[in-house]
Write a structure and sequence with these properties.
31% helix, alpha/beta
Length: 257
């Protein structure tokens, strides 16, 4: 059995794509904290099921050692306090002995903008990411943008980064949960030919997440300021400004009994 955890609807595309490329005897179960973005059951293959589950809560008995493989994706924006230990420990509990974990995620600290010409301003695009990062900190989500990294970098959300600021995911947190790291990889996302489409997606994601944050208690006038900043950012991207980010992938295996 395979269990993917996701934080956004497009992550379920991965699960449905896998379902079309694996034996029908495989049982695939997708989890999310909310059912709001689940596809209708009529669109799911017979071997795919979707369930609500908060991966930071206690693992219920029926999920303990129930899965051969777990796949995590796009959880970096929900791990608070820069510490994914609880999440990792819960996923380890759900794995059978000798089971595998694959975690693919963005590294928000590497979120950058690019202008193809000095004559094309990216000021608004830079500012909207800084604004997003600053408000995220109010929710105990710690991302850095625009400043040089500190000499010692804390383990940051779902990155599994080493505490010495290394460029590869660290196996330390996985090891504490009884998981041996088999492979790590960092690469720039997306490829150059997809950066326009990816930039459009990032702008929409920033819009959605910022208004969620502001609706929870933004200062007076901040919504209007953000709307104006968003409109300016869209104009930046029309002129050629692009956004991209590093992507991290780690594969591990739970130590057998």
């Amino acid at each position: 059995m395979l269990a993917p955890f996701a934080h956004c609807s497009w992550c379920f595309v991965w699960l449905l794509d896998l379902a079309g490329n694996c034996p029908s005897s495989w049982s695939l179960t997708g989890f999310d904290v909310s059912t709001a973005q689940f596809p209708h059951a009529a669109y799911l293959p017979s071997n795919v099921s979707l369930k609500r589950f908060d991966a930071f809560e206690r693992v219920i008995l029926e999920l303990v050692e129930a899965f051969d493989v777990t796949h995590l994706r796009a959880l970096c924006v929900v791990v608070k306090g820069g510490n994914p230990s609880v999440l990792i420990e819960n996923v380890a509990k759900m794995l059978k002995p000798d089971g595998y974990i694959q975690w693919d995620d963005f590294d928000p600290d590497t979120f950058i903008t690019y202008s193809p010409s000095l004559s094309i301003s990216k000021t608004s695009s830079d500012e909207i990411i800084k604004t997003w990062a600053n408000y995220a900190k109010q929710l105990n989500l710690h991302f850095e943008y625009g400043d040089p990294p500190p000499p010692v970098k804390k383990p940051n959300t779902a990155h599994l980064m080493s505490s010495t600021g290394g460029s590869q995911p660290s196996p330390s947190l996985l090891k504490e949960a009884g998981i041996s790291t088999l492979q790590t990889q960092r690469f720039s996302y997306p490829s150059s030919k997809l950066r326009k489409a990816a930039t459009d997606n990032w702008v929409m994601a920033l819009e959605e997440t910022m208004f969620v944050i502001l609706n929870r208690g933004g200062e007076e006038g901040e919504k209007e300021r953000f709307r104006n900043l968003l409109a300016e950012t869209v104009e930046d991207t029309k002129a050629g400004v692009r956004m991209w980010i590093d992507f991290l992938s780690v594969i591990g295996r739970k130590t057998g009994l």
